[in-house]
Design goal:
The chain contains 19 helices and 2 strands. It has 481 residues and is mainly α. It has a two-stranded antiparallel sheet.
Amino acid sequence: MRFPASRVRTEEVKGKEKWLGYLVGPAGALLLNAVLATYLNVFYTDVLKLTGVWGGAFLMIFPIVSKVIDAGTNLLMGQIIERTRTKEGKARPWLLLSAILVPVTGILLFTVPTSSETVQVIWIMVSYNLFYSVAFTIYNMSHALMVPLSTRNTKERGLLSVFNNVAAVMVSGIIVALIFPMVVMPILGVNRKLWLLTMSLLAILALPMIMLEYFHTKERVTEEIGGAEKTHPLKEQLSVILHDKYWVLIALYFLIFTIGSGFKNSSLVYYCNYVLGTYNDGITQMLISVIGGIPMGIGIFAVWPLAKKFGKRNVTMVGFVLYAIGGLICFLFPRNMVIMLIGQFIKNMGGLPCSYVFAALFADVLDHIEYKCGFRCDGLAASVNSVVTTVAVGISSGILNLSMSFAGYKAPDFIEETGETIGYVQNAATQNVFTFFFVGLEIITAIILILILWKLDVEKHIEIEQAEIKARNQIQTSEGE
């Protein structure tokens, strides 16, 4: 099957590829995902009022089971990518399919019918898995491999990693952290029609943006290997990655980091509404997210030069020291706005390397695996990492929801006659749940991540290994001619 050709023709990464393929293009799908990560659970608990369904068990069991299904489709998608052979690469063609599926399934998440509890529960389970286990899995698996497959040049790869994460951190962050809490959420309240309209617009926006990413990316590593790349049995690939210490470490890193981030993202709105501020006050969440997130803007210019000088691993490790310090400050004074902002600022300063350059470190791990075993395991390695993070998200959402139910969370009410949403003051136990999951748990995860990174020294010999890989591929190509 022939796919539309990439508009990138150069062997080196140029400006248009960086800006359109790795910054503007991914922004649509990543924005939708960021909004869902913060507000989909709010839609379930506050708009649909599902906290008490099955005695509080539904919103615990449903995310975990769904993420187990998602984990399976991630593994399947990884193998599909590994076996895809086209002139446009093995991952990029799947972006085209996701361009249609992501918006359609994204809209279905919010078209839950006004019907019986059983019908709503079934619709939620089906729509959630269509989006996350099918549509977004196809997009995310393909998107995640763009940096590792773009080039072997470590400098170019690092810059693409920065641009790629600017799309996730800055573009989505401005809207999710500024526009949504200040403007959108006070208007939406728990009005279902407005929720559907708003989320549908975001979902539709993803289509042209994903197409932009497809046309302005290029798989140079896949082209370099060319016909020399052979498909290896899944068992052999699993054995390779599971026996590589760097992959095991980076998979463990993804697991711990995602657990902490999952709890933080899921509890953000609740913490701002019921602990630090008042319900949808329009400013608390904005201040926490934007002022605390100012370092992310600074990081565009500062992180990569530091990573080049001191190493990606070293800069990321030191960053997590700051991350833990900032988190501790927040945890000690969870109701003091000024101190919270200072702590969030310090914490996000520490999170800069993780946000901007870690994709490049993951790409080094994939190259190291190729150097050791003689073939690439991109699809499997990326899919197993995705499985780890996917299950972690389900676990964090499920535990948060169950904790809210047991603590006695009281969802806001929508007054049909006046169009107002009434938010309630939560009891002390519920407030403590939000405080621990938003500002407490990440102190622990940061310390664990420092210990993991201490052993992740893959950069030490990566340039030598990459030169050997390139020479090996050139010999294989010449022998095949």
